[in-house]
Design a protein that fits this description.
Keywords: 4Fe-4S, Iron, Iron-sulfur, Metal-binding. It is built from three helices and four strands, in the order βαββαβα. By secondary structure, the chain is α+β, with helices and mostly antiparallel strands. A hairpin with a 4-residue loop joins strand 2 and strand 3. The chain starts with a strand and ends with a helix.
């Protein structure tokens, strides 16, 4: 699965960004996003770190973004 940030739940606190070991989380003008090309779901660290530090449970896995990630690898 790939991780995404739910904009409706995200408080834009920024706690997740510095915790990401692959630097896949970045702040845009009005939200935080996860670059699916960079996100490896912290496979070297066990569970995704961003999920564990998010105070609002706004980061979750999605099959749809995994599909988009696969397509980007072959385009």
């Amino acid at each position: 699965m790939t991780l995404v940030i739910n904009d409706d739940k995200c408080a834009r606190c920024g706690v997740c960004e510095p915790e990401c070991p692959s630097e896949a989380i970045m702040q845009t003008e009005d939200s935080y996003v996860i670059d699916t090309a960079l996100c490896n779901e912290c496979v070297r660290f066990g569970d995704p770190i961003c999920v564990s530090v998010c105070p609002n449970d706004s980061i979750h896995e999605t099959k749809e973004s995994l599909y988009k990630k696969c397509l980007s690898l072959f385009s």
